[in-house]
Amino acid sequence: MAFLMAGVMALSACGSNDNEEGASPSTGTPASESPSNSSSASPSASPSDSPSPAASEVKLTKVSQVTNWFAEPEHGGQYAALSKGFYEEAGLDMTIQSGGPGISSTQIVASGKAEFGMGQADEILLARESGIPLVAVAAIFQKNPQGIMYHKGKYKDISELNGHKVYVGSGVAYWEYLKKAYKLDKVEEMKYTGSLANFVADPEAATQIYVTSEPFTMQQEGVDVEYFLNYDLGYKQYGNILYTTEDYLEKHPDIVKAYVEASIKGWNYYKDNSEEINKVMQEKNPDLKLEAMAYGAQAQEPLIYGGDAEANGVGYMSKEIWEGLQKQLVDIGILKSAEPIDQAFTNEFLPAK
Predict the structure, then answer these.
(1) According to the UniProt entry, which residue ranges have a biased composition of type Low complexity (predicted)?
(2) Fold of the 146-229 domain
């Protein structure tokens, strides 16, 4: 199981203990115990008809969320909700902690150092089996943007990767699925380091990617590429899941609802105002150019706002998709057993469509 958890940590490389956004830093203390909170300070609190100036000030609930990488278009709705004041309107004093290599958002949320996290659907199931009771409260990506990139025209079927180098993270769940489903038993697995230099140098190589990012990098370098989207290859999992713990959800359902609704409002805003919010995110991640952000925002649009989100709204999750993913993880031995899937996710806090 050690290599599996290594995969979880690699996939969960999100968040840090350094505060990046918000009016004041998160203390890591549950919101209900924060000195700034009281029973009258819930997100739904409202002033009386004729309040005094002091009484009309609604106290905000301090919370923080951990994203799964440095600020980028995949987080656009979260930053939109922060910069446009949607979290504040919902009664939340929000801090966004950006992720980075080797940082586990699941551990940060499980320890109470952040109330909310962002990760992949398989991470939620793996964490739960490991005794970390996370609950998904929204799925930003209907189709996960993870994929396998190759040089243009080289492959028509993923099974043709046999006999060639593939740069991929060790123990990554989707790769274990693809190997079994497509009999990739002759692939030369190479350690993925984040660098694309070896891929570029070898016209027969392939590499793991986010379809919202690396293809743009290759375009800038004049390298023609194509890719397989893992979701379309049968590994159907949601991406950029927003989650919290069972305990926090049970004790603070009003805060969870305020967080989810404000986040979804942010994503609906980002769809038509990505250029504005990309500039906000670039202040936090200056290494990512606006041109790359524009590419990512366009590439991810059908993955976020398409599929079930068209009828049910951004963030919606299907029991069928969750059960299918769980069964795949059990079949390839990554999960030992299938728990009742209803415990792993809920649509209860999504805004009414």
Answers:
(1) 30-56
(2) D-Maltodextrin-Binding Protein; domain 2 (3.40.190)
Spatial distance between the Cα atoms of 207 and 196, rounded to a whole number of angstroms? 8
CATH pick for 2-27+60-143+237-343 out of 3.50.50.60, 3.40.50.1820, 3.40.190.10, 3.40.50.2300: 3.40.190.10
Cβ atoms of 43 and 90 within 8 Å: the answer is yes
CA 264-266-267 angle, to 5 degrees, is 65
| Local structure of 225: helix, strand or coil | strand
Provide the 3-class DSSP secondary structure of residue 60.
coil
Q: How far apart are CA 31 and CA 309, in angstroms?
A: 30
| 186-243 per-position pLDDT tens digit | 999 999 999 999 999 999 999 999 999 999 999 999 999 999 999 999 999 999 999 9
Residues of the chain with pLDDT under 70: 1-56
Q: How far apart are the first and last CA of the chain?
A: 41
Predicted local confidence at residue 65, as pLDDT: 98
168: enclosing H helix or E strand: strand 165-168
